[in-house]
Amino acid sequence: MQTPSDPNSSRALHHQIAQDLTSRIGREEGYCDRLPSEATLCRIYGVSRVTIRHALQHLENAGLVCRRQGRGTFVVPAAERTTAPQPDPVMGLSDILQARGMKVETELLAFGLEPAPPEVMAALEPDGRQALLLRRRYLIDHVPVALTEVYYPPAFRAFISEHDARVHSSPRLMVDHIGLRLGRTHLTVDVTEARHALAAELDLPCGSPVMVMRRITCDDAGTACEHSTLLARPGIARLSITAHGGNLPDTDFVPRDPWPPAG
Where in the numbering of this chain does the HTH gntR-type domain appear (predicted)? Predict the structure, then answer.
């Protein structure tokens, strides 16, 4: 049984299998014109069919194979493969701040399956009443900047470790670890008052205004795969959103210059 899994890797098992299969395609017998069946790959790697299908989806997204229902998975000839680079996923808050040269501290406040609030149930329609919650706080120069509360379908728990949740942004988790191709997203921006717990976490007086940005992200098949809420301190940054035709909008969280803000 082939076991490519590295227990120290932050990459999901299906992603590691996809990488191993990529190294075999066109180089080993049985991987040149057509890949082994899903059942055979399950035996080779000692994993479930769901994991193998996620791995094959990675290969198909990369243009290495094409899957034909009822016939199998076929290798795309090298001359016919598309070589255009894949676009970077939509950036998360930590990606944006780090790209601007800010030293960002990320604290993982909660990680695991939790009862899903009604708005999450309505958006994700998870099996059962639970969803996977990632709750994080972001600080710049030890100043609390924002909190994020991200809910995923409960099945994602099999592909995201606590380490992943601590160090990777939500878009990168969905693209690099779950293997999704992101489609449309829906954003709403509002303002709320910081109640006791939130005020303490953002180091604000109780009742202070807090910017709230909610995001529902769908995959390229239109299935909702993320319900995210960003809660940000007032007066430290501005939020910029730019749409490009039918593509996902670019969002930018621009810290005040100079940083930190006075007062």
Answer: 11-78
CA distances from 140 to 126, 202, 223 (A): 34, 12, 34
Torsion of CA 121, 124, 125, 128, to 10 degrees: -70
The pTM assigned to this predicted structure is 0.65
Q: φ and ψ at 187, to 5 degrees?
A: -115, 140
Read off the tokens for 49.
């069919």
pLDDT tens across 173-208, in order? Answer: 888 788 787 888 888 989 999 999 999 999 999 999
Helix (H) / strand (E) containing 25: none
Integer angstrom CA distances of residue 68 from 41, 45, 85, 181: 16, 22, 24, 19
Element holding 236 (H helix, E strand):
none
The alpha helices in the chain, defined as continuous H runs, are 13-24, 38-45, 49-61, 93-99, 118-124, 162-167, 170-172, 196-201
d(CA 224, CA 222): 6
